[in-house]
Design brief:
- The protein is mainly α.
- Helices cover 74% and strands 5% of the residues.
- Strands 1-2 form a two-stranded antiparallel ribbon.
- α2 (13-33) runs parallel beside α4.
- The protein is elongated, with a radius of gyration of 19 Å.
- The model has no long low-confidence stretch (mean pLDDT 79).
Amino acid sequence: MLRKWRDEVLSNPLAYIIVGAVFAITIARIYVFLGGNTGFIFDGITIHHFFIGAFLLVIIGILSFTLSDHKSKSNLLRNPLALFFGFGFGLVLDEANIVLIGGQAYTLAQYYSAYAVSFEFGVIALLVAWLFLGAYLRNRNKVNRRKRNR
């Protein structure tokens, strides 16, 4: 039973999206903590990792639509694309404060505020709950179908 759950969770692209998002948030937070800026500065213009994440989301979204083979159940690109999509999502999620405060400049204290961190972990927790609830419901439906077919 536990093996079926594990296989169900690991076959779901949402698991890879969660891993990518957590990895991106961790990398971004460590980078800023070690003294990096919250964005890259080119010619006096700060490009926050929010925009890099949004760019990744668009590119991966386009790739997932154009490269996916809807006739094949085992798509080799699905999980790697989900991982990169999660990385982009994590970068966007990490700077959600920019969107929530209307694009105004904010300080590192706001970047590390309990509100910002709670929001990120809350979204990740909802995704994890959704992943496991979906695995549970799919597994339960399979068991119910087997019982009805007896």
